[in-house]
């Protein structure tokens, strides 16, 4: 499958996810987006770009950071995501420019932005080094770049995901497959990727994010609103009860004294400057 077909598949997946994406009660994309913007540190009046904007987890913190004198462009491959984001921006009275498509020097002005963020996006790309090189060139010299990806999950969460990964199709682009190999393996490899793509002053580190859920059924309902939906879709109906039983057993060690599952994901934040 060529890169354009893979990107079309990613867009189709997120078209499916768009109505409920980031709309539940589990704090997930929004705290990650806020923290990424904080670490990228755009200034009031900046021209900022959010790549793979989704429902705006980083877009709206960017708009707040650059203020009324700044400008935010939000780009997403998914037309459905872009539609929801545009509607919410309008309801908030924010002049966010929403664009459907890819963010590259072929579609956006080279050096046209003071800051660029991409939250939990790059590991979906079949050519992350080529794509990231293009993103770096979209930022002016001295401009800031911020990426979020995933570090390790705790042992129980990893064991639960392993049940789903056993059903994963080959060449699946996902945070749990391509998002943990190659350049996404460690903070060191992420820093090396940014430097190889033309950035400098790179910092890459992990920060924990805890998710609290009552049981495995709630974990399934929540992960069905994420990219993990494509893994659930690969589980045959006849095997779903057995898979759920194994997932419930895997998650149980994370149950706290309050009888809630307390799952910990390390979020990897990598920031840099274009020389």
UniProtKB/TrEMBL annotation:
Keyword set, alphabetical order: Methyltransferase, Transferase
Superkingdom of origin: Bacteria
Protein name in the entry: Methyltransferase domain-containing protein
InterPro entries: Methyltransf_25 (IPR041698), SAM-dependent_MTases_sf (IPR029063)
Domain Methyltransferase: 49-143
């Amino acid at each position: 499958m060529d890169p354009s077909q893979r990107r079309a598949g990613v867009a189709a997946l997120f078209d499916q996810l768009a109505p409920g994406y980031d709309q539940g009660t589990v704090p997930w994309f929004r705290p990650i987006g806020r923290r990424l913007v904080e670490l990228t540190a755009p200034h009031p009046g900046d021209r900022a770009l959010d790549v793979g904007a989704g429902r705006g987890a980083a877009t709206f913190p960017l708009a707040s950071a650059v203020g009324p004198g700044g400008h935010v462009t939000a780009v997403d491959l998914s037309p459905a995501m872009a539609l929801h984001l545009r509607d919410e921006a309008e309801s908030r009275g924010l002049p966010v420019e929403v664009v459907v498509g890819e963010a590259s020097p072929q579609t956006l002005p080279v050096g046209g932005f003071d800051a660029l963020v991409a939250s939990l996006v790059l590991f979906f790309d079949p050519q992350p080094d080529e794509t990231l090189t293009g993103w770096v060139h979209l930022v002016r010299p001295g401009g800031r770049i911020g990426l979020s990806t995933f570090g390790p999950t705790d042992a129980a969460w990893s064991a639960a995901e392993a049940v789903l990964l056993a059903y994963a199709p080959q060449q699946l682009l996902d945070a749990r497959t391509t998002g943990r190999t190659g350049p996404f393996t460690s903070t060191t490899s992420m820093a090396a990727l940014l430097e190889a793509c033309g950035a400098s002053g790179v910092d890459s580190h992990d920060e924990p994010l805890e998710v609290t859920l009552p049981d495995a059924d709630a974990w399934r309902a929540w992960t069905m609103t994420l990219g993990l939906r494509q893994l659930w879709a690969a589980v045959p109906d006849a095997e779903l009860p057995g898979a759920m039983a194994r997932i419930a057993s895997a998650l149980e060690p994370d149950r706290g004294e309050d009888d809630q599952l307390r799952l910990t994901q390390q979020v990897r934040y990598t920031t840099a400057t274009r020389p």
